[in-house]
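step: validate -> pass
step: tokenize input -> pass
step: predict -> running
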Amino acid sequence: MAAPFTPDHLGTGLIVDIAPAVSAVVAAASAEAARCAAELIGADPADPTGTDPATPDVHADAKALATQLVRLRIELAAGLDPIDTVVVLRRGEVTWAAIAQAAGTSRQAAHERWGRRVREELDGQDSDD
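step: predict -> pass
step: emit ->
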């Protein structure tokens, strides 16, 4: 039998650190978005990002980017922050216009929403090389 509810339980429920749980849920949801996108496009579920640098096939690259566009749509519809997906798309030279179309917004709005964060991410990776 469970212990009776007390006011202390309410206090604990309001102050307990949920950050690790939130991070785990977001990571799981993002991974599921990638898996679903790969399934919808017909990409390899083992590599839903399609970012294998050993893949010289242009068609595979196009399928991978299409998968990322679907993943972007899924993440947005699920209320997730799709910044990692947007970074992959921009690294793959997908235009802001295509990203905006997938996001259901204008090119300018997409760039304003994610442009600075994408630039910081890509610039940070360049400086590590």
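step: describe -> The chain is about 70% helix and 0% strand.
step: cleanup -> pass
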